[in-house]
Structures are given as C-alpha cells and as structure tokens.
Design a protein that fits this description.
The complex is a heterotetramer, with 1 copy of chain A (235 residues), 2 copies of chain B (103 residues) and 1 copy of chain C (783 residues). With 235 residues, chain A is an alpha/beta fold. Chain A contains 5 helices and 11 strands. Helices cover 22% and strands 25% of the residues of chain A. Classes of the chains: A alpha/beta (235), B alpha+beta (103), C alpha+beta (783). The structure holds adenosine-5'-diphosphate and magnesium ion (MG).
Chain lengths: 235, 103, 783, 103
C-alpha cells in the first residue's frame, strides 16, 4: 500500500513514521510537502507528529491553512483513510475534519511516557486487527493532548462509537490516574462519523519494534493495511 | 492608514482552564486569600493597514474568526484605533510562514 | 593617559595592558567599534585566556578521533561509514536571569554547534545544578530550566536521552545549565568553520538580527554576579526552536551540495566571533557590511550588529556563483539568506556600514591573539580543614530502614522522572535504553541516518520509496552508542584532581554497565573566578585529574567548554567539571539495564568496598556534613572492572548491571529492585562490615564498583572472569520474588574469624522504596 | 466586594516574539497583505475581593509583578471594575493543576 506522510515546517516525526511504514511494515511511503496538493497516488495519508509552525498560537492553528490541507479534506471526503498522529490529530481538529480540540495538559507539563490504551471499538479501519478491550502499550509525547469537546459532541462520539482508544491502566480499567493529560473521559483517539479519519495523541510509530519497548503500535498500522488490502491481519 | 487592534481571546465558559487554576493556586500559595478566580487568555496586538476604520475592523474580525481563535473553545473581542506606531519594516521571521507558503 | 580614556577599556571588560596590546596590534587606538570587537573577542568566554594554557594538558589524540578540540564540535569515527560529532556547552548565567529562555537557548546553541559540523543531531543530554529545593527561587529556576530544555529539544524533534542533576547549597546564587548534543554524520563529510578563497561570498542565514543578548559573552559570562547587576543585563534572548528546526533541515540539505566552503554557528558574540574565527582558520580576510544583515529592530548600530546574540543564525562561506542555490534551499524552508560580504586575501576583518569602513583589524588578532594568562595558583586552605574531619564523631544509625528511605528520598539520589518525562526521549526511534538507569543507549539503525534530509528521502515527485521490511531484530549484531553526563562536584570540592578523575571514571562506568566501550569525552569546566589563585589551582588540578583518567581509560578529549566566574557576591560554586562520555556498543542484543530480571538470579558485587564516607550523600543527608576526602580511585583497577563487566555482558551471562554511586551499595541495590517494575521483585543480600563502620560499608561511595546479576548456572563462569582478571568480587545475595528488600551485615564473630555474625539491618517492601525514590523531587515541586 | 481586573501582559520592546512572527507570516500567506505586525501576549482576568477599589487595585498590581508577568521580558497594564459575576467554584482538573503550581 502507498502511504503519504505529510510534512509541515516543524513536523518532526515524519522520519519515524516513514521508518515504521517502510522498514518495519514493508509498505510504500513517501513524504508529502505541505505545499503539494496531489494525493492521488496514495491509499492513505498520515499527518505525522511534531510541532508544525512551532505550535505557535495554538497547536495546528497555522498548519491547517497549508495548501495540502485542502487536498487532505478532499481525500477524506472521497472516503480514503486519513490518520493524524499527535500534532496531526491537533491539525485535524483545527481544520474541522475531527470534532473537538486539544487543550494544554491539565498538569501543564509536557509528557513523554508509556501509556496503556484500551481499544474501544475494534470494528473500524484503524482497529480491525485488534480485539475489543485489548490493551495496547504505546507512548505519548505532547504538551497539549487534553481532549476537549462540548457535552453534545461528546455524547455523539460515544453514541456513534467514534472513540477508538482510551487511556487505561495496564489491566484495562479506565481510571483518571491512567490519563497522562487530563483528557475528557480518558479519550486518546477518535474517528469521524464516516469512519475514515482518525486522530490519536499516542505515537503508534514509536511502538513497532520490541527493541523500542513495544510492538503494539503495529496493530494499528496492520489494521489499516489489512483494511486497504482486504486481507486478514498479519499481526 | 495604520490601525492597531487589541484582540482579547478568552476561553468559553465551561471550558476548563488549567493554567488559570494553576495561577489561582500560586496566588493562594503566596498568601493572598481574596482571589477566587483567574482565567488566562491571549492578548494579541495586530497592526493593520486599512483604507478606513471600518475596513480595518472587518479585517480583524475575519482574522479573529479564521486564525486567532478556535471557536470550539474560545471567543474573542477586540478594540481598534488609529495607530502612529513606527513599525520595523514588516519582516522578521515573518518570511517563514509566507515563503513556505501557507495558503 | 588622561582619565576619560581609562574608562574606555573597562567599559568593554578589558584590562589596561590588554588595551595597550590592541593599540600595538593596530598601530593606533581602536575606534569605538573596534574596541567593542576586541572587548568581546578577548573576553574570557570567547578567548579562554585564563584556561587555554592549562587545557593543553588534556589528551586529545586517538586513532578514532577525526576532529579534536578547536572546531565547533569534536568528531570520532565509529564505523567506516559513521562518525559521531558531540560537544557540551554551558548557559549558566542567562539561565539564572531567565531560566526558561536561558536553558532553551543553551540547547539551541549546542545543537547548532553540532549540525554546523554536518551532523544530524540525534541526542541531547543535560547537566543541571541548583540550590536546595526548599527554596522557592530554586524551584523556579529548576522548573523553568527543565521546561525550557524540553521546549527546545521537543520542538526540534531531538530526544533528550539523559542527564544529571544535583541540588546543593553552593549553587544557590549561580545555577549551572550544561547541555550536550550528539550527532551523526558520514566520516568524510565534516563541515568546518572556515572561510577561504578570495571573492567567495559570505552569507548570513536563518533568523533576523536584533539587539538580543548584546554583551552576554563579555559581561554576563565573563564576570561575577553581584547585587544590582540588573542594569548590565542585556535583553533576554528568546529561543525559536521552530526557526532552528527549519535551519537544521535547510543546512543539512545545503551540505549535500558542494556549494559550502565553511559554516559556523553565530552563538556567543554573534557575527564578530563567527566572522573573525572563520577568517582566522582560513588564514584570510573578510569584508562584511552590517547594513546587509537582515535586521529585526530599527536603528541598530554597527557594533550592535557585530555583538548581537540573536539566536538561530549561521554564517556561511559559499563558493562564488553558487549563491542562488543556497538561497533557493533556504527559501524552500522559509528562511532568509543574505550575502553580507566576501572573502579577501589581506587577512583583515573589515567591517562596513553601508559601504563606509567602520572597523578594520587583523582577523588573527581578534580570534587567536588574546593574551594567554598563567594565573597564579594556590591550594585553598579549606582543603586542609576538610581533611581533618573526624568521622568517628558521627553516630552510627539505629534504624537502617529509615536511613535508606531518606537517602532514596533525597533529590540527589531519587528518581529523575520528574525531569525526563518532560523531555521527548524517544523521537527518531533510536533510544533502546531510556533515561532512568545509568547511561542512555541509542541504536544507530534508527529513523535518522547521517546525511539524510528530506529531499534525499524523496518528497513527492521523486516517487514512492519502498524498502523490504526488515524483520525486527532484538538488536543482534547491531551497533549502538551509549552516552552519559556526570560529575559529582562534592568530590571535586574535597579533592579537585581526584574528584575530576572520578567524574570521568563514573561517566565511563555508567556506559560500561550497558555493555558499551568508552570512546571519548567532551567536558564543561564550570568554576569560579580564575583570577583568584585558589580557584585557578582547583581548575588546574581538575584538568590534571581529567587528563589522567582520560589517558588511563583511553577516552580522549575531543572538545569542551569553559565557564568561569560562576560566583555570586564572591561565593564560588563547587568546582564542577562536567564530563560527557560517548561509548560504543557492539551488540545491542546484549544491552543491559539495572532492573532485576529473574527470581533466583545471583547478585554479584564487583570491586572493593572500603569504609569511605568522605563526600557521601549519606553524610550530607543523614548527618548534614561534608568533609574528609573524596573516595580513592585507582584507574588501573577501574579499567580492570570495565573489562570484566564488558566480557561478562558480551558473553551473555549478565541479566542486570548497575554502577554503585551516590548512596553506596545498598542504594544501588535498591535502585535495581525499584527498576524491576512492573514486576515486584526484591532481594536478600548481605555485606561484610568488618573492615570499619557498618554505615561506611553500606552507604560509603567507594569507587570502581558494579553490581550485577547472573543466572545461577552462570555464576561459575562469572567468577572465573573475575579471577582471570584479578578483580575482587563477592556473591552478595539473590533476587527474590516476594517484593521485599532485605539487607544484612556480616561481621566476624568474636570467637573466631571464620564465624560470622549476621545482623539483619534492612527489611522494607520494594513498594515503600519505590515511593520514597519516586517522590524525591515531586514532593517539592507540587508546592 | 468583588472586582474584576483585566490584565494585559505584553512582551517588552525588542524581545523576540516567535509566535507573533509566525502568525504574521500565516496571515500574509492567507492573502492579507496589510498586517505589518502581530505581537502575542496574555490576557488575564482576575477576580479579586477587596475592601475598596484601591485595595483591589493594589493587590492586582502586586500579583501582576509577582506572578502574572515575568518582569525580565514582559510588562503589564490592567483595568479594574466592580464585578457582579457569580463565580462557580473551580472544579475538576483544577485540583491537579493547582498542585503543579506555576513558579
Ligand atoms: N537532568 C536530567 N535530564 C535527563 N535525564 C536525567 C537527568 N538527570 C538524571 N537523568 C537520568 O536519570 C538516571 C539517573 O541519573 P543519575 O542519578 O545521574 O545516575 P548515576 O547516579 O548513575 O550517574 C539516568 O538515566 C539519567 O540519564
Ligand atoms: Mg549510574
């Protein structure tokens, strides 16, 4: 499958995402400079993590106006898969492809740590290789990952099973202490109503090799790959 | 004509403000008791060239909506007045975003 | 000379004889601009005039050293196609004034030093010193510095993988912020800070120039702080890591062309320092027009352009005719580039202001001809006093449980998680041993490769790249880099030479316990005012200590930084020669960490335990005293220890390893139990305590010791490795699975030497240990 | 008596404002040409209990110096007026944030 990894000025996880997709998962990938508009050749697009435009003003606030974002919106409207990791998630919220917003972590500190994620909905393009309730060990790395949405939006997200991952204890229970950032209802990752745009704060690309501490991130990428190829998961 | 707008961006009611709460805590820790609440927002000074005050106002309103605030959690208000500030040739790191061509 | 003239040199921080020397060189009195240029270039910070002669004692050669001191960073060769550039830098004074921005820009500066060499930075380490945390001002400095370092490194996407921090009274008025950067490059592609080729253009690239930090180098970093120094303070430099990220990517892309003759970061003393140094290295002249420098503020004077310390800028000497290429690359990254002058062949640094010459002097005079001082040195009287310290007067504790918990709860020993959880320590996918143990360990087959930049990887248009998926390995046969930054300044205070040697040995030991072979160091000499003979003696001794240790351990010094005048109101900090160590790991599958791995593993203590309490954290925390001498150090013995540890690790018989440092052997053991989490393991151990005091044996900080664990079946082999190398060792206990931490002391019985009396001294749950250890810093920072 | 102060914290002249520059660039790239400068500061709403307006004013002045601004790089001004706001006791994440404490 062909992945486009979108790079804004200030993006800094593009090499990691590229490494995971190509070196570990054996997929085709190439970088998409934020001024490019042509996404036709890709089966899926990943907005990689980092600090686009320095995170100045608000995370994702400036990147959302990049030319590539129009194409990403069209790509998504055509039903193709879009994944926003960390800063990518923040951008997708700013541009309105995903509901809600990401606020400063409740404790006000940047946080780089391992977290446990409970898979809330295993029947999606992004989680098909997981089982419901499965706990994935994936690190977070952000200063603003505190998910916020107004009560109506939150209710809708829950109703439509759009919440894909919640921070949990290693045994799978969702407790306030398990959240690294004070996120509403421990939300770590969500998708849009159409089910083809996902944003998540944790970094699955950092958890694709056991030597790095976990290979659980592969469940997420393998889900996408098998959704795209229509074949069974390989994990 | 040059105008200067002062844009105040504040969090919507009901949106938690961890920074504000932290300041409340710090204020208390310093021994001040009568500070029931602190909310932290942004104060953005925007200098705009406009044919008229109305034109300038319209522009700031647009900027406030499009970029300076995020309607999911924030609101903004602004005041605007003619400015006689002498600005350093409008450059600075500015070029960054321009040249990298945010649309 | 009349009075008004006298003020002239002091205004720029020069001494009268220095001023006279300038006049001699020029054959006339300098004008205002020239005076400023000499003032800053001949400042301690830029010229090393007090330390230069002593620094020559450091060993700098080694067959793997491909760039020693003198360039922006040192470089060693690791494999035929991979070299490592690394360097350390201090930002002490600016951080005391504004901790967040001071520390952030400190990181920014050291990153530029490394990528200006043509390397891609892959790791940052930080070394921090503050006063005690019960002081709100210290908490403010600490919190601000950590946030600032995180802000810069995190935004840049470069992992901060390790560091160290100490809190001590001596840093109350003068914190230390040292940052080290490690980068990778292809050995043949080193870039240098040189200008050459008359007619070649000189370009400024990156950020605009404002009045930031003017006189930062000459006044802030080259003089003591005193009350009311407020007015001397330059405007605070604000870091823009976003700009620097663009600058990094643009420079790496530029280096793949051959348009660059030389490049240098514009750090301390900005344009004047970079231009004169580049000219001096190339033995040429330079003509630059300050009006061509993109300015951020209005009405800047020529000398302000020359001295500005605005961040995120580089000076580049380009092959004539290649300017458009350079411009195009910087433009792609949204950055400014401007030709500000050209190389000449007359050896002069000529500064123009819109065409009119405003300053002219030999580049060598500025860059190389600052006076070299051989300051007076005198052994400080305090040392003799300290040596008289009577340990017998210290009572032995009744409750060893309590002692251990208090030690673990000391911010100097306790977990540093509060710090490194604020740092991205994983980005670039290289970190295979995260902070929290001893040294950090990075794999080289990470997402970052030398010479890699986005254009080379193929942005859209170059077609999609596909690589065969490699089966993820567990690192078998893979090479890695271990790194650690270390300095126990209390030892240096007690015994400058030995203390400095211990800093080298300890940094090396921390790398060795991961399985890596120490290769080279960089160092940051943080001291007080060198014009005081006692301070200079200490500095000189410390350099001797580093030299001795580096020679013995075969870790040449590839560079470093000197930060002097770390005093406030006449009070100097502890002498703090921070050592940044790089070590090479030949097989990542054998990487070793401190946490206990298996129940039933046998615990082995390597090295000699002596009853040495001098300089220990135990004496400080439990008895509130600092005295005696630093622990003994035998470098040949240290080397032997390294050999044993490395042999055992690479034979695959070591399941966990940890060096013994602050808090002694019991603390080290406790850390191994704590690090076993999430597994609840414990241990049952006993130590001989017949030679001297029990507390001295348990908590003393004898050097050259490592605790490791082995499977029971491998013990015979482990022992024979020790015996073959003549290394003392003892089996001290077992790893247990009950989550209890038990330590006993063994002493010779009264009746017979061979009958031991066993005294159970410590029995705690590992959960209790963990809480004490993890709360050591947070308990202060919640206030 | 309850007062509400609106505190504007701005960067001192000459201090680099990377955020402001980035926004300037973005604004330009969005096609607005007449925005020569943007500077970003903080807008802090502080509710204070005071015996008199003067007492409240004095307190805000102190807070501004000690907590709300960083005098090394920033300056602040404020306005203050009686407030009839009914403040809801802070809840939720507040607790945590307070404890992490600014400064
Ligand atoms: N300032 C810091 N920044 C990042 N990591 C740190 C810092 N201080 C300590 N650490 C990490 O915490 C661990 C313990 O550090 P330290 O107590 O200095 O170890 P040691 O006693 O072995 O020298 C190491 O992995 C170290 O890299
Ligand atoms: Mg250690």
């Amino acid at each position: 499958m062909r992945f486009g990894v979108v790079v804004f000025p200030g993006t800094n996880c593009e090499m990691d995402t590229y490494h995971a997709l190509t070196q570990v998962l054996g997929q085709d990938a190439s970088y998409v400079w934020h001024q490019d508009r042509d996404l036709d050749r890709y089966d899926a697009v990943v907005l990689a993590g980092g600090f686009s435009y320095g995170d100045y003003l608000r995370t994702g606030a400036i990147a959302r106006f990049s030319p590539v974002m129009n194409s990403v919106a069209e790509f998504a409207a055509a039903g193709k898969l879009v994944i926003g990791i960390c800063n990518g998630f923040q951008i997708l919220c700013e541009v309105g492809l995903l509901p809600g917003a990401l606020q400063r972590n409740a404790h006000l500190q940047f946080r780089c740590d391992w977290t446990s994620l409970r898979v809330e909905n295993a029947g999606t393009a992004f989680t098909g290789s997981c089982s419901a309730g499965q706990v994935l060990r994936v690190p977070v790395n952000h200063g603003e990952g505190n998910y916020f949405a107004d009560p109506e939006t939150l209710a809708e997200l829950n109703q439509n099973h759009q919440v894909l991952f919640r921070y949990c204890d290693p045994d799978g229970s969702v407790t306030p202490g398990a959240s690294p950032n004070g996120s509403l209802e421990n939300i770590a990752g969500i998708m849009n109503t159409a089910g083809n745009v996902m944003g998540l704060m944790p970094h699955p690309e950092r958890a694709c090799e056991t030597i790095l501490g976990s290979a659980d991130g592969r469940y997420i990428f393998e889900s996408v790959i098998s959704h795209l190829t229509g074949r069974a998961a390989r994990v | 004509m040059l105008f200067k707008a002062e844009v105040k961006v504040t969090l919507k009611k009901g949106v938690l403000d961890p920074q504000g709460s932290a300041v409340e805590g710090a204020v208390k820790a310093l021994g001040y008791s009568g500070v029931p609440q602190v909310r932290i927002g942004k104060f953005i000074e925007v200098w705009v060239e406009g044919a008229s005050e109305d034109a300038a106002r319209e522009m700031v309103q647009e900027l406030g909506k499009k970029i300076l605030s995020n309607p999911v959690m924030e609101t903004f208000t602004f005041s605007l007045a003619p400015s006689s500030d002498r600005l350093v040739p409008a450059v600075g790191a500015t070029e960054t975003a321009t040249r990298t061509g945010v649309k | 000379m009349s009075n008004p003239v006298e003020a002239v040199w002091t205004q720029v921080g020069l001494k009268e004889p220095e001023y006279r020397r300038v006049c001699e060189i020029l054959g006339r009195e300098p004008n205002h601009v020239e005076l400023q240029m000499f003032g800053v270039m001949w400042s301690e910070h830029c010229s090393y005039k007090h330390s230069r002669a002593a620094l020559r004692k450091l060993p700098t050669k080694g067959e793997h050293v491909i760039q020693g001191p003198g360039e922006n960073a040192g470089v060693i060769k690791v494999t035929d196609d991979l070299a490592v550039a690394f360097k350390i830098e201090s930002h002490n004074h600016p951080s005391f004034v504004e901790p967040f921005q001071g520390s952030a820009t400190g990181v920014g500066g050291i990153l530029r030093d490394v990528f200006t060499m043509g390397a891609r930075p892959v790791a940052i380490l930080d070394s921090l010193r503050f006063g005690p945390l019960d002081d709100p001002k210290q908490r403010h400095l600490f919190a601000g510095s950590v946030a600032g370092i995180g802000h810069y490194g995190n935004c840049m996407g470069i992992p901060t993988v390790g560091g160290e921090v100490y809190f001590d009274e001596s840093y109350r008025g003068n914190c230390l912020i040292n940052a080290m950067c490690v980068g990778i490059l292809e050995p043949g592609k080193i870039r240098k800070g040189i200008a050459r080729g008359a007619g070649n253009p000189i370009m400024v690239v990156g950020a605009r120039t404002g009045r930031d930090g003017i006189h930062g180098a000459s006044l802030l970093a080259s003089a003591e702080f005193s009350e009311g120094a407020e007015d001397k303070r330059p405007s605070v430099q604000v870091g823009d890591p976003f700009m620097e990220k663009l600058l990094l990517e643009a420079c790496l892309e530029l280096f793949e062309t051959d348009a660059v003759v030389g490049i240098q970061d514009m750090g301390a003393a900005g344009l004047i320092s970079s231009s004169s140094e580049m000219a001096a290295r190339g033995d040429c002249g330079l003509e630059i027009d300050v009006r061509k420098v993109p300015a951020r503020e209005e009405g800047m004077q020529p000398w302000e352009f020359l001295l500005s310390e605005s961040q995120e800028r580089m000076l580049v000497c380009v092959q004539a005719g290649r300017e458009p290429e350079v411009e195009a690359i910087f433009q792609k990254w949204g950055l400014l580039s401007a030709v500000i002058g050209q190389v000449t062949d007359d050896g002069m640094l000529r500064v123009l202001d819109g065409g009119a010459v405003v300053a002219e002097c030999p580049a060598h005079a500025l860059a190389d001809e600052a006076p070299v001082y051989h300051p007076e040195k005198r052994e400080p009287a305090y040392l003799a006093e300290l040596r008289k310290f009577d340990f017998a007067a210290l009572p032995q504790p009744d409750d060893y449980n309590d002692v251990l918990l208090r030690l673990l709860n000391s911010p100097n020993i306790g977990s540093k998680e509060w710090i490194y959880r604020q740092y991205d320590h994983m980005v670039l996918l290289g970190t295979v041993i995260e902070p929290g143990g001893d040294a950090a360990l990075l794999r080289l087959r990470s997402a970052a490769k030398p010479g890699i930049h986005l254009a080379a990887l193929g942005t859209v248009g170059n077609g999609a790249a596909r690589t065969e998926a490699s089966t993820p390995t567990d690192g078998e046969g893979e090479i890695g880099l271990a790194m650690k930054i270390d300095c126990n300044a209390r030892y240096v205070y007690l015994n400058p030479k030995r203390g400095a040697a211990i800093a080298v040995a300890e940094a090396a030991r921390n790398c060795v316990v991961t399985g890596a072979v120490p290769a080279a160091i960089t160092n940051n000499l943080n001291f007080g005012n060198p014009e005081k003979p006692e301070i200079f003696w200490t500095l000189d001794q410390a350099i001797d200590g580093i030299a001795e240790a580096c020679t013995a351990l075969r870790t040449p010094v590839t560079g470093g930084n000197v930060s002097l005048y770390n005093e406030t109101n006449g009070e100097a900090i502890y002498p703090t020669p921070t050592i940044g160590m790089i070590a090479v790991h030949q097989n990542l599958a054998r990487r070793t960490t401190p946490g206990f791995k298996h129940n039933g593993d046998v615990i082995v203590l390597l090295g000699d335990t002596k009853d040495e309490l001098g300089g220990s954290e135990y004496c400080k925390v439990i008895h509130g005293s600092v005295g005696g001498d630093a622990p003994a150090l035998d470098l040949a013995f240290e080397k032997k220890l390294h050999k044993v540890v490395l042999t055992a690790i690479h034979e695959g018989i070591v399941t966990a390893a940890h060096d013994v440092a602050e808090g002694g052997v019991v603390t080290a053991l406790a850390e191994m139990a704590i690090a076993a989490a999430p597994e609840a393991r414990g241990c049952q151990a006993s130590f001989f305590a017949n030679a001297g005091r029990v507390d001295g044996n348990l908590f003393g900080e004898s050097q050259s010791r490592v605790i490791l664990t082995c499977h029971r079946d491998d013990i015979v082999r482990m022992r024979s490795i020790c015996i073959e190398n003549g290394l003392p060792h003892r089996l001290v206990g077992d790893v247990t699975g009950d989550g209890r931490f038990k330590v006993a002391a063994l002493s010779a019985g009264v009746e017979s030497e061979s009958v031991f009396r066993r005294q159970e001294l410590i029995d705690l749950s590992v959960a209790e240990l963990t809480t004490a250890y993890k709360e050591a810093i947070p308990r202060w920072m919640r206030a």
